[in-house]
Amino acid sequence: LDVKARDMRGQKYVLQVAPEDCTGCNLCVEVCPAKDRQNPEIKAINMASRLDNLTAEKDNYDFFLQLPEIDPAQLERIDIRTSQLITPLFEYSGACSG
To answer: Domain residue spans in the chain?
Structure first.
């Protein structure tokens, strides 16, 4: 997705689930506030069959791990929005209630 923040124009944002670490609890889907404007039943993150998607999501995750991290010095300010972009990221066991 294109980042809408003025100080980050031209940047992209991606959220990638670690497919082998997901417990399938559905909590992330329940709390996700982003919805499709045409179909509010569809959110930015949706549950799907693990078996049908595991190979593709492993490839996506491997690609995600190769993306460069943001240098905090490039951020205009550190706030609730930008703090989500700085290492350590929200990840791995214990990162969510699931």
So the answer is: 6-85
